[in-house]
Amino acid sequence: MGRLIGVSLGPGDPELITRRGWAALQSGARWAYPVKRAEERSYALDIAVRGGLAVPDDAVELVFPMTRDAVALAKAWARAAARTVELLAEGRDVAFLVEGDASTYATFRHLARAVRELAPEVAVDTIAGVSSFAAAAACADVALAEEDETVAIIPAAYGVGLIDHLIDEFDTLVLMKVKPLVDEILDLLERRGLLATSCFIEKVGSPEERVVHDIARLRGETVNYLSLMLVQNPKRARGELRRGCRKRAASVGPASTGLPTQPITEAG
Ligand SMILES: C[S@@+](CC[C@H](N)C(=O)[O-])C[C@H]1O[C@@H](n2cnc3c(N)ncnc32)[C@H](O)[C@@H]1O
């Protein structure tokens, strides 16, 4: 049995493929890449191609349809897992190409699980990569978190009720999969006075990359599935913060324990 390798390729710019990912692609492992429909273009494969790599003749596409039909999904997963096990049984490693990071909302973890159910002896190696939101923050020139700030990463499909609630709980919200909810989210951000501290990023790192700071103008637009929003709430009321392990704090505590006598609360 070969190894199943999840090769994170970053969100679009081949310069963000890690050295380990790059090496795996060139290791002689058989490439497998995800598509939504048979013979459709693969966003992940395109990243490798933009990086200057030729697609090996024996690269294999695995179909993962975008559907909520549980039966169709289960069938597709079973087919993809069975095909992967068949390939691994040839004794060669399989490098599964993943857009973004392979551990973040990625098909790879499901695939690895399904493969292990069929063949528990298969060794799985996950190569970490740059996630869409890390690249998006860099590209939009905003911080995901500074100092003691908190960040939540959520699929927007939980709805604006939950987003509204989380705005008060976190300094930054990363809203993934925003496509079907853009207008509703814009209404919420307008109501909360957060349009100016939010931004929208689409297909980051790809030639079609788009960074929108004036997000109100997205109203009514059909955006690409590969898009997200970063929402920052500078007015968030914070709780008490314990900084017991900091040296500065320790110096005010009793010499015998080295601990601060009381928690230091956040400024402001
Ligand atoms: C199935 S998840 C894949 C996440 C990916 N594994 C990662 O590490 O970011 C798909 C969602 O991730 C976000 N996403 C993925 N790639 C993106 C990109 N290049 N630009 C903007 N958002 C992206 C979008 O919110 C999209 O709906």
From the structure above, extract its key features:
binds S-adenosylmethionine; five-stranded mixed sheet; alpha/beta; elongated; 8 helices; 18% strand; five-stranded parallel sheet; Cobalt-precorrin-4 Transmethylase, domain 1; Methyltransferase, Cobalt-precorrin-4 Transmethylase, Domain 2
Topology readout:
Elements: E1 4-8, H1 19-25, E2 30-35, H2 43-50, E3 60-63, H3 70-88, E4 94-98, H4 107-118, E5 124-127, H5 132-140, E6 151-155, H6 160-167, E7 172-176, H7 182-191, E8 198-202, E9 210-212, E10 227-232, H8 247-250
Parallel strand pairs: 1-4, 1-5, 2-3, 2-4, 6-7
Antiparallel strand pairs: 7-10, 8-9, 8-10
Helix pairs in contact: 3-4
The structure holds S-adenosylmethionine.
S-adenosylmethionine is lined by residues 11-12, 99-101, 104-106, 131-132, 136, 176-177, 201-205, 225-228.
Summary of the model, kept short:
It is built from eight helices and ten strands. By secondary structure, it is of the alpha/beta class. It is elongated, with a radius of gyration of 22 Å.
Descriptive account of the structure:
- There is one protein chain.
- By secondary structure, the protein is an alpha/beta fold.
- It has two domains: 4-130, Tetrapyrrole methylase, N-terminal domain (Cobalt-precorrin-4 Transmethylase, domain 1), CATH 3.40.1010; 133-232, Tetrapyrrole methylase, C-terminal domain (Methyltransferase, Cobalt-precorrin-4 Transmethylase, Domain 2), CATH 3.30.950.
- Strand 6, helix 6 (160-167) and strand 7 form a beta-alpha-beta unit.
- It contains eight helices and ten strands.
- The strands form two sheets. It has a five-stranded parallel beta sheet with strand order 3-2-4-1-5, sandwiched between helices. The protein has a five-stranded mixed beta sheet with strand order 6-7-10-8-9, with helices on both faces.
- The chain has helices at 19-25, 43-50, 70-88, 107-118, 132-140, 160-167, 182-191, 247-250, and strands spanning 4-8, 30-35, 60-63, 94-98, 124-127, 151-155, 172-176, 198-202, 210-212, 227-232.
- Helix 3 packs across helix 4.
- The model is unreliable at 250-268 (pLDDT under 50).
- Residues 11-12, 99-101, 104-106, 131-132, 136, 176-177, 201-205, 225-228 line the site of S-adenosylmethionine (SAM).
- This is Precorrin-2 C(20)-methyltransferase.
